[in-house]
Amino acid sequence: MRIVSLLPSATEIVCALGLESSLVGVTHECDFPAAVARLPKVTRTLIPHHAASAEIDALVRERLKTQQALYTLDLPTLAALAPDLIVTQALCDVCAVADAEVREAACALPGQPRVVNLEPTCLDDVFACLGLVGDAAGVPGRARDVVAALRARVDAVAARAPRVEPSPTVGLLEWIDPPFSSGHWTPELIALAGGRAVLGTAGARSHTLTWDAVRAADPDVLVIACCGFDVARTQEDLPILTRQPGFDALTAVRTGRVYVTDGNAYFSRPGPRLVDSLEILAHALAPAVHPAAAEVALAVRIA
Description:
The protein is α/β, with parallel strands linked by helices. The chain has two domains: about 5-120, Nitrogenase molybdenum iron protein domain (Rossmann fold, 3-Layer(aba) Sandwich); about 165-300, Rossmann fold. Helix content is about 40%, strand content about 15%.
């Protein structure tokens, strides 16, 4: 089977299922596992590589107003790869090629490859996506084994969570300029780790926040996990946050509980590494309760 992935989380799902050798094409953002970087890229972005956060936000909003996607397919490359299976998504208009463009392209390809559309909004949905891709690729048993191992790790965190006392309020921002809440699976991860989300709603979309709303929430723990940014890139934008009025008065700042994580690798991608995200978050909230997981990056404390 020849598989093309149209989003990084799908690439990670395919590889977690032991199908890396079947991948023939990925997106320009796919970077895990590292070997996928050598594969042909079937997408390109309309976002300038070195744009500032505010510029990226403005561009995203403008494209969404006109219902134009931020990513587009490289149709000649896709056709040359002759995929049997294309894995894509329709969850986020910002994160991938538009679903309609994918389906139109698939219909025009010889043999009309199967298109599997992933739309996870919670952790159980992510596990279901692993099963969906496993079924489509003919490895349902392998998918069940992978999901069982991931669930065991989640259960281990959840079993320790009642020992996190008192339960801290947690604000997780997925963008700084302007501030954005984290919805979908993130509030669920916070709850599983023993915290209480105050800036997002489980299962709901993320949304723009005013700085006054962040200050009013005054979380015990503040986590910065900018969508598409690694830790180093996020740290470049931290002065935008720290210059906000009242930042130094936040409880999380006064108690030294402000963290930066790799949002690109973890919290933004609804794939197997969401379980890594849970373990990262849990350790940051209560290191005495939740030990650091092996081979998982730690959150970086900045205040």
